[in-house]
Amino acid sequence: MPLINVKPIEDVFTPGQKQQRGIMGSATAASRQEPISAHIKHRPRSGTVRTNGQELFYEIHGDGPPLVLVMGIGYDSSLWTLQQVPVLSARFRVVLLDNRDAGRSSRADHPYTIADMADDVAGLLDALDIHRTHLLGLSMGSMIGMEFALRHADRLDRLVLAGPGVAPARSAVDPISIWNWVKAKDSSGEVFGGQQFTWLFSTAFLRNHAAVQDTIALLASNPNPVEPEAYDRQAQAYLQFDALDRLDRIKAPTLIIVGEQDLLTPPWVAREVARGIPRALLKIVTGDGSSHLVPLERPDEFNQLVMDFLAH
C-alpha cells in the first residue's frame, strides 16, 4: 500500500491467510543454551565508544544507508536481532546500540533524562563518523527517537516510532512506575516477568504455552540482564518524559506503527503522536499478534512497513 504524505494518514493492516512468522515461530525455536543472536549468519562489526559520560556498546550489520535501532526500557539491542536485523541489514547499514544502563553498555552513576539518551545516540554517530541516519525506536526507544529528532534534526533522515509513548509525565499513574516497584521487590524475577508478558504480548501469544516457555528461556539466556538499580534510572527518565507540546517541531518524515491490542501504548496514544507531528503517517496492525511487540509478533508486516517508508 503506498505511503501518502497527508496529515495524518491512518491505515489498518489485518493479518493475511498465511501463517504469521513471529516470535511464536522461528524466534522461540532457539535452544536454552543458544545465544540470543546466534541465528545471525554474518559477523557484525562491534565495539564500544565513550561518549556523553557513558561507554556504549554497538553493532553494525550490513551496508547501505544508516539505520539506527533503539530499544525500549529494560532490554538491550539483542532483541532486534530476532526478526529485524536479518531483513533490514539486507538494505541498510543497521546500527544497534545498547542504551546506557542496559546490555553491554555502562551503568550510569547518576539520574538522567531521555534527552541525555538521545545525545548518547548522537555521540555514537560522531564516533562512527555517521552524519545522518534513519532511526527506528520501539517504546522508550521511540521517546529517544522523538528527542533525537528535536535535538539533532540535521542528523535525521526519516523516523519510525513503534509503540510510542509521548507524555507519561502527565499521568498520575503509569504502568512503568508499577513495573519499577515490582522490579525492585521481586528477587526471583518471576512476578516481574509475568507482568511484562501480560502487558507486552498478545492474547494469542499468551495462549501458546510452548511459545511462552521458549521465550522465557530465550530471554533468560541473555548474559547481560538489567539490574533493578539500572532499571530504576531508565524508568525515572521514562516517567519524566513529555514531548506532547513539542511534536510540531519534528520536521523529519515520520512513520508511527502501533498494534490494535497494544496495552502499554494503545492506538489512541499513537494517534495523539500522529496528530502532533506534521504530515506523520500512522499504521495500525490488527488481529492476532498486534501487541506492543508488533516487531516480534508480526515481523513480516512490520519490516515491510519500515522498508517501504524508508525507501521513499
Number of domains: 1
Spans with pLDDT under 50 lasting ≥5 residues? 1-7, 17-21, 26-38
> Tally the helices: what do you get?
12
Mean pLDDT: 90
CATH superfamily: Alpha/Beta hydrolase fold, catalytic domain
The ordered string of helix (H) and strand (E) elements is EEEEHHEHEHEHHHHHEHEHH
Reported by name, the CATH topology is Rossmann fold
CATH architecture: 3-Layer(aba) Sandwich
- Tell me, what's the shape? globular
Oligomer: single chain
The share of residues in extended strands comes to: 15-25%
Rg over C-alpha atoms, rounded to the nearest angstrom: 18 Å
Describe the overall structure.
Helix 5 (175-185) runs antiparallel to helix 9. This protein has a 9-stranded mixed sheet with strand order 1-9-8-7-6-4-5-3-2, with helices on both faces. The chain has one domain: Rossmann fold (3-Layer(aba) Sandwich), CATH 3.40.50.1820. It is built from 12 helices and 9 strands. The protein is 35% helix and 17% strand. It is an alpha/beta fold and 312 residues long. The radius of gyration is 18 Å and the shape is globular.
